[in-house]
Amino acid sequence: MQAMAGRADISDRHIARKLKRRKLQRFSHISSTEEPLGQPKKKRRSSSTETLENQKGRGDSISFQIFPPELLYYITSFLPVKDIIALGQTCRYFHEVCDSEGVWRRICHRLSSRLRDENMGGNRPWKRSAILNYTKGLYFQMFSGRRHFVSKTVAPLFSHGYRKFLATKDHVFILDYNGTLFFFKNALVSSSLGHVQWRRACRFMLLCRTAKDFATDPRSDTVYRKYLYVLATREQPVAGATKRGEGSGVAPASSRLCDCVEVYLQSSGQRVFKMTFHFSMKFKQIVLVGQETERSLLLLTEEGKIYSLVVNETQLDQPRSYTVQLALRKISKCLPHLSVCNMHSNQSSTVYLTNEGTVYFEVHSPGVYRDLFGTLHAFDPLDQQMPLAVSLPAKVLSCALGYNHLGLMDEFGRIFMQGNNRYGQLGTGDKIDRGEPAQVHYLKCPVDLWCGLNHTLVLSQSVVDFSKDLMGCGCGAGGRLPGWPKGSASFVRLQIKVPPCVRRVCSTRECLYMLSSHDIEEADAYRDLPASKAGVPPSDMESLAARSCEEYLSQLHKCPTLEGRTAIMKEAVGSMPLMTFQKDFFWEALDMIQQAARLREAPPSS
Hints:
By secondary structure, the chain is of the alpha+beta class. Among the domains are: 64-116, Up-down Bundle (Monooxygenase), CATH 1.20.1280; 540-601, Methane Monooxygenase Hydroxylase, Chain G, domain 1, CATH 1.20.58. Helix content is 26%, strand content 30%. The strands form eight sheets. Strands 2-1-30-29 form a four-stranded antiparallel beta sheet, with no helix packed on it. It has a four-stranded antiparallel beta sheet with strand order 3-4-5-6, with no helix packed on it. A hairpin with a 3-residue loop joins β21 (396-401) and β22. It is globular. The termini are far apart.
């Protein structure tokens, strides 16, 4: 027994020595790259022997491709949406993994409980729903006050992206892709110093679940936006039809889906009026025209026809019921072959955009007609609903209508402006009215176009890094053009940081709004401009540029102050067809020169 115990002790010592020797070998292999100073370098072994030894020591390498797809989907779904998109750009294999619906389905489950049973439809419903909810947001910048920064409102978790928004006198209304209308309430809060401050959209409530579209007073001043008109779908029971239930009672028959227009107070969200249409009438858009006492509601059907009815807003809050007459609009009567796809309106005019890309005007005021067309030759005061065609060389995709000027975007990404140019709101570099559409040549890759009372905003995207800038022209009073208080007759880059997924812009007297939402189902709308439709020849372009430079030089000679000359130079740089980083360079250089001149002119301190 003693001999057996001695042999066991010897074997244990032998095993301990082997383990200690292996640890020393591993440590010497790790630290072999760092040799002490003063000792001669050892000869390196061949790479083949090193690889063989490394393979023996490490074993076979593990690849992600040997994992089952369900496990990869489960691991990848815990990453943020931004990191998943970046991972999908590394290689073809991870692109297939990150583009699969299994990953995005788990992300939708994690984002919101409502997304577990609902998706957005389309080819990739789960991915579309996840990206819409990840990129949704409403950003705003106040014009008043000293602090100018972009803020973000609250975002409901159960909303499916943001499709449309509208700012009223006190609050904001947002419609998502599932037809849910949200009522974002603003609030007055007191700060620590006792001052009263605005908090934009600090809370929200659900107004309607089956909304198709909504509209309010088309004037730019939000003071007039008292009521909100909502086009929705409601279930209506069939009149006179009954069915017998399980018991002896009699229950009404199955209901039908009918379109209706509901009117809400924008201050409280209370419904004050409702009108229901026949179940055979299906509408998709609503706009308003006219004054409060004779408000015309224009309704666009799914077939492209336009119907109208007249409502007196001063009697909406009275508890009574009456019948309104729904009539076919004259553009659908005179031109029955036209299929209208979109409408825009202001207080006294309407623009119709057809599926073929043609534009038709309907002007009800002689003053606005003169501003838009420069003459009253074809204006008929007895027939104000007669549509007038606007001729353009290409198909028009979208348009924006201000008080007395119009903006159009064609299929090649070009912008055309028409109408009154008293404040330079057309962005043509001068203040001459245009009775026909005039192209603005230096604007490229526009995303959205908005026309206000006397200024215009364009959201553009860079081709190089896909960053977005907000360009503006026209009157700059009240801070409506941040960085340009005196305004500009040409489109200049506004001093505001634009979030990367912004797709809609809108401005009121107090605030600038930007709606953020990215839909992967929306394809690129613009096409490459062919050589035959290049537009203005180079000789005319050079002459226009030379003329504008001469005008800016004459202004510089007449201006006596350094601040005025710097402002003129900034406006000239903004009107030149330069890239965004080049314009930023010149503007910052001008600011530095102005600051250095101020320091030189300042008296020395005692």
